[in-house]
Every structure is written in structure tokens, then in C-alpha cells.
Amino acid sequence: MSVLVNKDSKIIVQGFTGSEGTFHAEQMIEYGTQVVGGVTPGKGGQEHLGKPVFNTVKDAVEKTAADVSIIFVPPAFAADAIMEAADAGIKVIITITEGIPVADMIKASDYIKNRDCRLIGPNCPGVITPGEAKVGIMPGFVFKKGKVGIVSKSGTLTYEAADQVVKQGLGITTAIGIGGDPIIGTTTKEAVELLMNDPETECIVMIGEIGGQLEADAARWVKENGNKKPVVGFIAGETAPKGRTMGHAGAIVGGADDTAEAKKRIMQECGIHVVNSPAEIGKKVAEVVGA
Q1: Is there a catalytic annotation at residue 248?
Q2: Residues 10-39 pLDDT 10s
Q3: CB-side exposure of 13: number of CA atoms within 13 Å?
Q4: Cβ distance 4 to 128 under 8 Å?
Q5: CATH of 138-289 given 3.40.50.970, 3.40.50.261, 3.40.630.30, 3.40.50.80
Q6: Whether CATH 3.40.50.720 fits 11-120
Q7: What is the pTM of this model?
Q8: 228 is in an annotated binding site
Q9: Which residue positions are annotated as catalytic (predicted)?
């Protein structure tokens, strides 16, 4: 079992022939991900990296039966790319693009609300189910198959956590980089819920950061649902000056509950095993899993 992507996922790349799309599609194909084609308007009918190029997502879905899309489209056009994918019947839309205007994302998230699809991102590293499918920009070699799920706002900390978990001999079921923008598709709570419902995931690592309520909402959901699986949590940005945006557009402290200390307190109260440094994640996972 896995969540969101697996060896049967058929992936198309939106922004396929651009430099970013080309570089990462190449890495994904090399990893063994089933990339079935890509979309670049005006280049339909061509071949790129040995895969067909289509003018629209609709064409790509009709010809390849693709069910997952990864978006490497420039910020000004990325929201349209998300809506186009949803319209064409893509089930999982993974948006890597950073810097999409908030007004565009409001429109896109509203548009896809009543459609049968799930958006991951934007401004995220993607999703990986080790040994099956890498749909994103993460270094595949860090991830090995195992029994720990990862949900993270930070790309770099996703890789760091995975590396530590693997070194403890535990490995990863699926790692989900949800992205750090103010408006994202799948929340921390929703990603944690997916992993809670995955029979192969025995423990979840939840990595958050200052700003917003996502981690607190997820922690409360875990408690309300009986703490079925151990969750190890880390919040980045403890030393960030109040009111300063740090790295991610969504990482800005707006209220008392947005600080790292407040989030950590709420998580602890909800039974989550909170660590104070990312260097402690692997050890804590091994401890709670009893490895």
C-alpha cells in the first residue's frame, strides 16, 4: 500500500519541454516512475525524452489514460495549468511551481473544490513512494521503502527526515511535501489522515513551521481520532523574529498560536512526540516504533 502515487500511477508533466520540466522528468523516468508523456501548448505531436508531447492535458489523458500530473509551469500560468488538469480528469495534481500569485491560487482552489481530484502544493517538492514512483524534485536515492510516512511543509527537511529514518533501518511508505504557500491544496491534517488510513504506515513524521494553523489542526485531529499511530513532530522557525516572513510565503507569525512554541505545546498536548531539533527525528521515530 501507499498513498497518492505508486507503480501503477500514470504521470504526465505539464511544462514538459521547459528546462525545469525536462531536468526533473528525466530524473523521474530514471527512477522508474511511469511518465507517459507531457504537455507543452504548441508542441503537440513532438517527442521529448522518448515520450509524446501533447498540446492539452485533455489530449494527454485521452491518449495515455494519465491519472497524475506534475506541474512545472511558470507562476503566471500555473493556476490555469491546475484548473486544466482538474478539468481533464486528473486525480492527483502535484504543483512544484513557486511564486504563484495568491489571487490566482484562490481562484484555482475554488475551481477544483467540487471536482474529484487532489492538489498537492504549490511550492512543494512533490510526493514519493520509494521504489515505485517519484513525482517531484526530491533526491530519490535518499528514500528507501519502509513503514514510516512523512508529511512536511519543507522540502529540505523532508529529505533530512527520510535520511534519518532510513539510517535507523525503518524506511518510508510515502513522503508528501505539502508546500509552504499561504494557499495549498492538501493540508497537513489531510495528508496525515491519508497516512493514518494506510495499513503499511506504522508511524508518521509531521514537519511544520511557523505561521498558520495547519499543524495545530492536524494534532487535534490525531487526538480526536484516538492517536491510532505514533506521530513524531518538528516545527521549524523557533528563532524567527515575529512578523518576519521566513523562506516560505506562508511562514509568517500572525497570531499567538502561529509561533513555534505554541504549535509545539498544542502538539504535545495532543500526544504527539515533539522533537526540538531536526537532528532528533530519526532517533525519536526508532524509539516510538520500538525498532
Answers
A1: yes
A2: 999 999 999 999 999 999 999 999 999 999
A3: 33
A4: no
A5: 3.40.50.261
A6: yes
A7: 0.95
A8: no
A9: 248 (tele-phosphohistidine intermediate)
